[in-house]
Amino acid sequence: MKRFIIPALAVLCAALAACGQNAERKTIFAMDAAAEISIIGENADSAFSAVEKELYRLDALMSRGRETSDVCHLNDNGSGEISADTAAVIKTALDISRETDGAFDITTAPLTDAWGFFNQSYRVPSDAEIQDILPRVGYENVTLNGNSVTLKGGARIDLGGIAKGYACGRAAEILRDSGIKSALISFGQSTIEAIGDKGNGAPWKIGIADPEDPTEYFMTLEITDECISTSGSYERYFEQGGKKYHHILGPSTGYPVENGLMSVSVICADPTRADALSTALFVMGRDKAAEFWKTNGGFDAIFITEGKKIYITPGLRDKISEPDGWVLETIE
Ligand code: ADP
Ligand code: MG
């Protein structure tokens, strides 16, 4: 069996150096990902340590890899009292599950395990195994009451599709509270939050990875004081029998989602929402996701599909560069 994994390069930060500003940078490893923080201006050192402390704290609460985390505690015991942060993440997760008709679902944990994405022992489970797991999957099995959670019917949770967005938001809050006016936080390179502009009045320029060669970026997006989160089928996958299996799973099917999408980016002010929505819209597929955008609004989106097509919402028209060889269409 051929197995390999490529680094998550959903979104590459275009070179900060190019903006002619002196940025202080630091990389912090938390939640199974690298958070790259660039700060322009003063107080960078104390801000870096405050962010580092916060990311380690959130990692300890929300990672399934940490035995004492809230998430492990709930999965082991089926219920319990959790921290206010984990409760806030679960609340947003459940809200988005309801809004997206279950496309986003934190109870996909047993499926993620069966496919080997959790401990990187990749395998294709039998259909019988998947059918056996599916009754335990469903966000309705999660009850949140204040900071108390109950998981019904053997459900287990995984915050991998939302926790990095929350952590990105907390990091941004700390930087803003430290008086920083200009910074970029890139978490796992899939959720990026811009604080202010580049310090010279120009927006931050974010490179969007080419799904056909994710080590390169093929278009850019300008953002100021907002966040972009990307979910891509090329971010984490393995191959078996000449077929690729990626990590975004359909909660109702139990299988990696195959709908012609290669990546979905969501751009909005709230990184927790952007992270969860990018995963949800990927699961929904382009048509349903576009309907969701039309009905709900509140965010912009980029859908990159097989067949070299890119669909964007109208709010991005003047902020995006058009890559050569791709057809760019605006969703109306
Ligand atoms: P990344 O972690 O690379 O930023 P995503 O935000 O798209 O990517 O989250 C994918 C992760 O979320 C998976 O690795 C898994 O842990 C979890 N997940 C997979 N499918 C779903 C789903 N349908 N709803 C919620 N979480 C999911
Ligand atoms: Mg996500």
Please specify the SSE layout and strand pairing.
Elements: E1 11-13, E2 23-30, E3 33-40, H1 44-62, H2 70-77, E4 79-81, H3 84-99, H4 109-114, H5 127-133, E5 142-145, E6 148-151, H6 163-177, E7 182-187, E8 191-195, E9 204-210, E10 213-223, E11 227-232, E12 237-240, E13 243-246, E14 261-268, H7 271-284, H8 286-296, E15 300-305, E16 309-312, E17 327-330
Parallel strand pairs: 16-17
Antiparallel strand pairs: 1-9, 2-3, 3-7, 4-6, 5-6, 7-8, 8-11, 9-10, 11-14, 12-13, 14-15, 15-16
Helix pairs in contact: 1-6, 3-7, 6-7, 7-8
The structure holds adenosine-5'-diphosphate (ADP) and magnesium ion.
Adenosine-5'-diphosphate binds at residues 8, 104-106, 108, 112, 117, 158, 160-161, 164, 188, 190, 231, 235-236, 247-249, 251, 275, 278-279, 283.
